[in-house]
UniProtKB/TrEMBL annotation:
<keyword id="KW-0001">2Fe-2S</keyword>
<dbReference type="InterPro" id="IPR039261">
    <property type="entry name" value="FNR_nucleotide-bd"/>
</dbReference>
<keyword id="KW-0560">Oxidoreductase</keyword>
<protein>
    <submittedName>
        <fullName>Oxidoreductase</fullName>
    </submittedName>
</protein>
<dbReference type="InterPro" id="IPR012675">
    <property type="entry name" value="Beta-grasp_dom_sf"/>
</dbReference>
<feature type="domain" description="2Fe-2S ferredoxin-type">
    <location>
        <begin position="228"/>
        <end position="313"/>
    </location>
</feature>
<dbReference type="InterPro" id="IPR006058">
    <property type="entry name" value="2Fe2S_fd_BS"/>
</dbReference>
<dbReference type="InterPro" id="IPR001041">
    <property type="entry name" value="2Fe-2S_ferredoxin-type"/>
</dbReference>
<keyword id="KW-0479">Metal-binding</keyword>
<dbReference type="InterPro" id="IPR050415">
    <property type="entry name" value="MRET"/>
</dbReference>
<dbReference type="Pfam" id="PF00111">
    <property type="entry name" value="Fer2"/>
</dbReference>
<dbReference type="Pfam" id="PF00175">
    <property type="entry name" value="NAD_binding_1"/>
</dbReference>
<feature type="domain" description="FAD-binding FR-type">
    <location>
        <begin position="1"/>
        <end position="103"/>
    </location>
</feature>
<keyword id="KW-0411">Iron-sulfur</keyword>
<keyword id="KW-0285">Flavoprotein</keyword>
<dbReference type="InterPro" id="IPR017938">
    <property type="entry name" value="Riboflavin_synthase-like_b-brl"/>
</dbReference>
<dbReference type="InterPro" id="IPR036010">
    <property type="entry name" value="2Fe-2S_ferredoxin-like_sf"/>
</dbReference>
Length: 313
């Protein structure tokens, strides 16, 4: 798995329970380029790997900035980041990947964020502003104190709309926001599950190529029925996938160095080419057309509809 060693240059408090982490190479050299919407994996203590969106402008080549909300009820990644990463800490990261790309030539872009979902959209806003393309941002959070970057974004002007559940501004009306957008606009959403569901409902009648979203959590349960065989094309090895396990479980159990991060079908790290067979897709990364094409699959959560899957591994 390709990794880059970086040092935490600065930790900043961006809101209640939200810290941002500025990461640079120890020698100050440029980092791999990225596009707005991209995320990186942080390799944390105890073998934890977690993906976080890059929130700084893509024109910045010397640093990556991620913002992490402490999730007390989460799987431990955010707690590990908050407790263990300090200015000066060295850590390994994965290179940027982007499953939430910005369509830079859109006539208008509507950016919709909930809570810490603001992070990739902040990078998109910076890119659109740099290109001089029209955009608007709708950003909802439970409280202003918990909304990272709220002051900075509000200062950008009237195209920024903030909504706080505990304030008179009230809740975001996604259906009205979508209806009011100029014809041909592209829509982007990142936030909690309930917001993404409302976003999907509000944009259901629009062409899929103008609707873009990124999830924090798995939408579907992993395929654990097992009962099929994975053939690794590069070595010819065949691994049976037993009930209750995933393909990735089997790969790791057999010492195969397969890339992975979230293990929930949301980050795309484990995307693998399918050479033969039919996957049972359970991820939130591939679009409908990509699923139907069956050319790749996420091995951390997807299974098989055919008795054998031949994979490019
Ligand atoms: S490891 Fe994240 S999608 Fe599979």
């Amino acid at each position: 798995m390709e990794t880059i060693v970086v040092r935490v240059e600065a930790v900043r408090r961006e809101a209640q329970h939200v810290h941002s982490y500025e990461l640079r190479r120890p020698d100050g050299a440029a980092l791999p380029p990225f596009q707005a919407g991209a995320h990186i994996d942080l390799h944390l203590a105890g073998g934890l790997v977690r993906s976080y969106s890059l929130t700084n402008a893509q024109t910045e080549r010397q640093r990556y900035v991620v913002a992490v909300a402490l999730d007390a009820g989460g799987r431990g990644g955010s707690r590990c980041v908050h407790e263990r990463l300090h200015a000066g800490t060295l850590l390994s990261i994965g290179p940027p990947r982007n499953h939430f790309p910005l369509h830079e030539d859109a006539g208008h872009s509507v950016l919709i964020a909930g809570g810490i979902g603001i992070t990739p959209l902040r990078a998109m806003q910076a890119r659109l502003a740099q290109l001089g393309r029209p955009w608007e941002l709708h950003y909802g959070a439970r409280t202003r104190a918990g909304a990272a970057f709220a002051d900075e974004l509000q200062a950008l002007g009237a195209q920024v709309h903030l909504y706080f559940s505990d304030a008179a501004s009230g809740r975001m009306d996604l259906a009205r926001t979508v209806q009011a957008a100029p014809a041909g606009a592209h829509f982007y959403c990142c936030g909690p599950q309930a917001m993404l569901q409302a976003f999907e409902a509000a944009t259901a009648a629009l062409p899929a190529e103008r609707v873009h979203l990124e999830r924090f959590a798995a939408q579907q349960a992993p395929a654990l029925d097992g009962g099929f065989v994975v053939e690794l094309a590069r070595s010819g090895r065949c691994l049976p996938v037993a009930p209750g396990t995933t393909i990735l479980d089997q790969l790791l159990a057999h010492g195969i160095d397969a890339p992975y991060s979230c293990m929930q079908g949301i980050c795309g790290a484990c995307e693998t080419r399918v050479l033969e067979g039919v996957p049972e897709h359970r991820d939130s990364v591939l679009g409908e057309a990509e699923r139907a094409g069956n050319r790749t699959m996420m091995v951390c959560c997807s299974g098989a509809r055919s008795p054998v899957l031949r994979l490019d591994l």
